[in-house]
């Protein structure tokens, strides 16, 4: 009798789109538990300044920012804190990932969070 291996496919991560303009900061709110994470995508233009700030109920919740076409984060919240502001290196869709640190995730911790993001055009 042949053995059959069943492999469960991981659910696809569907990012939430944020429409960020220089006129009005956009706010996203949510919650996480354990090893959950939430991805947000926002369009950015090379040379514009993106600012993101996060507040949370859990000091182990952070966000990372990744540029289009890159697997390396431009900003790592667990190292750099809960605020980012910087010029965008390329035009395209940037990814913000909100997550709990591994130790908090293993404990099954949860967090409520609020992200605010805004863009300033090049002057």
- Order of strands across the biggest sheet? 1-3-8-5-6
Number of H- or I-type helical stretches: 2
Strand content: over 45%
Task: Please state the overall shape, judged from the principal axes of the Cα atoms.
Answer: globular
| Strand/helix succession | EEEEEEHEEHE
How many DSSP E strands? 9
CATH fold label: Jelly Rolls
- The CATH class label is Mainly Beta
The tally of domains stands at 1
Helix fraction bin: under 10%
Radius of gyration: 17 Å
Q: What is the terminal separation in angstroms?
A: 71 Å
Which structural class fits the helix and strand makeup? mainly beta
Described by strand count, sense and barrel closure, the largest sheet is: 5 strands, mixed
Second CATH tier, the architecture: Sandwich
**Can you tell me the residue ranges where pLDDT is under 50 for at least 5 consecutive residues?**
4-10
The mean pLDDT is 89
Protein name: DNA breaking-rejoining protein
Structure explained in plain terms:
It is a single chain. This protein has 123 residues and is mainly beta. It has one domain: Jelly Rolls (Sandwich), CATH 2.60.120. Helices cover 8% and strands 50% of the residues. The protein contains 2 helices and 9 strands; from the N terminus they run ββββββαββαβ. A hairpin with a 6-residue loop joins strand 5 and strand 6 (73-76). The radius of gyration is 17 Å and the shape is globular. This is DNA breaking-rejoining protein. It comes from Sphingoaurantiacus capsulatus.
Features of this protein?
123 residues, Jelly Rolls, 8% helix, mainly beta, 5-stranded mixed beta sheet, 2 helices, 4-stranded antiparallel beta sheet, 50% strand
């Amino acid at each position: 009798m042949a053995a059959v291996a069943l492999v469960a496919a991981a659910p696809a991560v569907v990012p939430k789109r944020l429409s960020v303009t220089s006129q009005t900061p956009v706010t996203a709110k949510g919650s996480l538990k354990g090893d959950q994470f939430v991805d947000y995508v926002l369009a950015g233009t090379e040379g514009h300044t993106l600012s993101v700030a996060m507040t949370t109920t859990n000091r182990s919740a952070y966000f990372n920012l990744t540029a289009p076409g890159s697997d390396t984060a431009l900003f790592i919240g667990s190292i750099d804190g809960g605020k980012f502001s910087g010029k965008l290196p390329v035009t395209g869709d940037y990814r913000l990932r909100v997550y709990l640190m591994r130790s908090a995730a293993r404990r099954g911790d949860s967090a409520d969070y609020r992200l605010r993001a805004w863009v300033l055009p090049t002057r």
